[in-house]
Amino acid sequence: MKLLSDDALHEVSESMESLSRKGISRRDFMKFCSGMAALLALPASLVPRIAEAVSGKKPYLVWLEFQDCAGDTEALLRATKPAVADIIFDIFSVDYHETIMAPSGRQAEKSLQDVVKNNKGEYFVVVEGSIPMNDGGVYCCIGGRSAVDIAREVCGNALATIAVGNCAAYGGIPAALPNPTGAVSIKEAVPDAAVINLPGCPVNVENLTACIVHYLTFGSLPNTDKLGRPYFAYGKRIHDNCERRAHFDAGQFVRQWGDEGHRQGWCLYEMGCKGPATFHNCPVVKYNEGTSWPVQAGHGCIGCSEPNFWDTMSPFYRRLPEVPGFGVEKTADKIGIGMVSLTTAGIAVHAVANAVKKKKSGEDKETE
Amino acid sequence: MLKRVYVWEFPVRWSHWILASSIAVMSITGYYIGNPFIPAASSNQYLMGWMRMIHLVAAAFFNCDILLRIYWAFAGNEYAGWKTFFPFSAQRLKELSGMLRFCLFLKKNPPAITGHDACSSLIYLLVYVLFIGQTITGFALFYLANPLFIWKLLGGWLFPLFSIQTVRLYHHFVMWVLIAFAIVHIYAVWVLDQARKDGSISSIFTGYKTIEEDED
């Protein structure tokens, strides 16, 4: 059976030559393509199509950083197997990335402008970090322009915008209460842009690559949920795919850091793990190319791929959030038990009063 | 003259006891799900699994029961009818103030009512709002692991309107409100049973109350 056309084979082999010069074997490349197919939940029969698409024309890609910590950039650069990182950089023509590009100053701004002007509607933008809107957006300026101004121009003219990390997707940590800079997500800052959200702290680079591979293969971005996250990566809850789930069902829980259960690798539910409230493919794909992920390392999930996780998922080491309007140390259970006790006390008082009243009316009758 | 009146028809009594027992079961299992206080001795146990299973089965009983009771609010007798739970007419507001004055010892006897008095009606209305809130948030939390359209329709639509943790907190906290309600409910029935001597307590088992009839 012939899976590829002659032209495609030629193209793949050309691309393979360039990769083999970098020390990446054909085997590595096909492994990468199979991995992408698996991640996107595609059948193996589509692997050749992926290989063809990935070795075709390189899309332009610019990477913008706003109110961020460069954590997503780190995630991209810290790939443990250099081969895959090389493949990623071979797929894209990365024309602007503040942290890793060679040019600086005006030259750097020029390379961004070149992409935006010459390839209007044909390039991808990856956005990292939130965009401050308060006071005209003065809290984040690059090359004399505000983040919102840059985002409107660059994302507004892009083929697609990929918001990586929670900050770009939902405002993240800069948008946590009291949100002093008025930080918003890229979708809120540029409502017209075609945005796909890849939240996480940091983003899982495999998901970012898979999104672009999906686009190259099918000419469209993957389907997303209500929160703009692709289903292939955010369709399942962490809790339901967790390697410690069996301990949850059995009823074996870590109750204190370093206790016997913790050493045995039991469920981190009691330690405030937010796996039951978080949708992400961490348990399956893991971070740094399958090395590990927080729960495997013995720490509960903090829900970093959910909107406003810093506010809604905290306290990170407790099961439930604080009850609004009460002190920090008041849990729902303490307040609930307090309420039930007060009710019981109220009833006791009422019952005593009732008895006294009855006795009195009884005495009245006797004296009559 | 005393007269036996059939107040609580069978569906009313049935739904009352199913509600009471399912709430008791769901409070215990639900508390365990929120705070697994019994440690499992071995990996072969299925403690949390069973707790969740029992919680979900009890929830199914609870939900069907709510549907039954709502149906009976339209099909049942005057004491079970939906109108009784909206005590906002002038006469019933007067009844409400009478009840409140009785509770505060400002009035010697409670108003003579055969079915639900205005005060209880109002509380039951609020409790039903809480019940339906528990149902919706319960289905929402169930939907997280079972993203089918039916569960989305019954509760999953709450996301992303509210964060998952907010829904969880609400669902947990209302349990305490309902426990407090149950305590007040039992006490109030006892007090009224004593004051009216109409057999309020036995009426939820037999359906009959003993009412003093006006001579006409």
Give an overview in words.
- The complex is a heterodimer of chains A (about 375) and B (about 220).
- By secondary structure, chain A is an alpha/beta fold.
- Chain A folds into 3 domains: about 1-55, no CATH class; about 60-235, Rossmann fold (3-Layer(aba) Sandwich); about 240-355, Cytochrome-c3 Hydrogenase, Chain A, domain 2, CATH 4.10.480.10.
- Chain A is about 45% helix and about 10% strand.
- Chain A is built from 17 helices and 9 strands.
- Chain A has a 5-stranded parallel β-sheet, with helices on both faces. A two-stranded antiparallel sheet of chain A has the order 4-8. A two-stranded antiparallel sheet of chain A has the order 5-6.
- In chain A, a hairpin with a 2-residue loop joins strand 5 (about 140) and strand 6 (about 145).
- In chain A, helix 3 (about 45-55) crosses helix 10.
- The radius of gyration of chain A is 28 Å and the shape is elongated.
- Chain B is mostly helical and about 220 residues long.
- Chain B has a single domain, classed as Up-down Bundle (Fumarate Reductase Cytochrome B subunit).
- In chain B, about 65% of the residues lie in helices and about 5% in strands.
- Chain B contains 7 helices and 2 strands.
- Chain B has helices at about 10-35, 45-75, 90-105, 120-145, 150-155, 165-195, 200-205; strands at about 1-5, 210.
- Chain B has a two-stranded antiparallel sheet.
- In chain B, helix 4 runs antiparallel to helix 6.
- The model of chain B has no long low-confidence stretch (mean pLDDT about 90).
- The interface of A and B includes residues 248, 251, 253, 319 and 339 of A.
